[in-house]
Specification:
The protein is mostly helical. It contains 13 helices and no strands. Helix 2 runs antiparallel to helix 9. The radius of gyration is 19 Å and the shape is globular. The mean pLDDT is about 90.
Length: about 300
């Protein structure tokens, strides 16, 4: 039975928290695999492991027709972005703690707002541009380009992944006008699995039996995470749900400490606080802007 209006925000918040936890567990699995397999191979395994579950969900809820009546050029672009994003993020996870990678990746919502101007023609006021600039300053604090920070290929790879994610998210907003959520989710995973698999094939490393459970866990966590995040945004306002994405930092710290025995340093915490604070302010300003346009 559907949730009552009074329970909808609570349900949306719970779904979002569950989704973030599932994706954090998936990322921990990706980080574990990154020590044994090349980035493109891990990206291919990420797509392949979730694909059967997502395909079953898509066929049961929307039917095969919804998967075929799509805007193929945009899906192909998202597929390329997905390959670059996942391979870059996996490369970074091999070399950085989860919490540090998350701290840098949190710049993605700021990039989405900035890129919505040239791509979607949206208006972004001076306050939101200021929040974006402050958030990018927070990234510099984490990277520490003039000190002993993480301005390495790994740190830059997270920025590449965040940029790819931001462009892909904007394309989702375009695709949402014509294509189903099921098609958007399925084709991203399918194209990522196919493209990354082809790129990884020349240097494919045979899979080890002890990693079967990890690969299966990545597939289940990724599929369930995608479903719960979709339901979260469907059940509640974006301004309520989106800030809960930052709870990933808590999971990153807990997983780093329990699995790898590392913790972020003080400057990483400071940079993360600046990025998260800018993101939260940006979400608030976007809500105010939306309410002003549609009183």
């Amino acid at each position: 039975m559907p949730a009552t209006p009074a329970l909808q925000p609570r349900r949306a918040a719970l779904l979002m928290l569950v989704s973030v936890a599932l994706f954090a567990l998936m990322d921990a699995g990706l980080k574990t695999l990154s020590a044994h397999y090349p980035p493109f191979q891990v990206a291919a395994m990420r797509g392949l492991s979730s694909l059967p579950l997502v395909l079953g969900w898509a066929l049961a809820s929307a039917g095969a027709g919804a998967l075929l009546r799509v805007r193929w050029p945009l899906h192909l672009v998202r597929g390329v972005l997905g390959i670059v994003m996942m391979a870059s993020f996996v490369y970074a996870l091999k070399r950085l703690p989860l919490s540090t990678a998350y701290s840098i990746f949190f710049v993605a919502p700021l990039l989405i707002t900035a890129l919505s101007v040239p791509i979607l023609g949206e208006h972004v006021g001076p306050r939101r541009w200021t929040a974006i600039a402050v958030g990018l300053l927070g990234v510099l604090v984490v990277l520490r380009p003039t000190g002993e920070g993480v301005l390495t290929l790994a740190g830059l790879a997270v920025l590449v992944a965040a940029f790819g994610y931001a462009v892909s998210a904007i394309l989702v907003r375009v695709l949402a006008r014509t294509d189903s959520t099921q098609a958007t989710t399925f084709w991203l995973l399918a194209l990522m699995a196919l493209g990354a698999g082809l790129l990884a094939w020349p240097g494919w490393v045979p899979l080890r039996g002890e990693h079967a459970a990890i690969i299966a866990g990545i597939g289940i966590a990724g599929a369930l995470g995608q479903y719960t995040i979709t339901e979260a945004f469907r059940s509640g306002e974006a301004s309520l749900v989106a800030p809960l994405e930052y709870s990933a930092l808590v999971w990153g710290v807990l997983l780093d400490l329990s699995l790898w025995g590392v913790l972020p340093d003080g400057l990483t915490w400071l940079g993360a606080a600046i990025i998260v604070g800018s993101g939260l302010y940006l979400i608030r300003r976007e809500r105010v802007h939306a309410e002003a346009e549609h009183p």
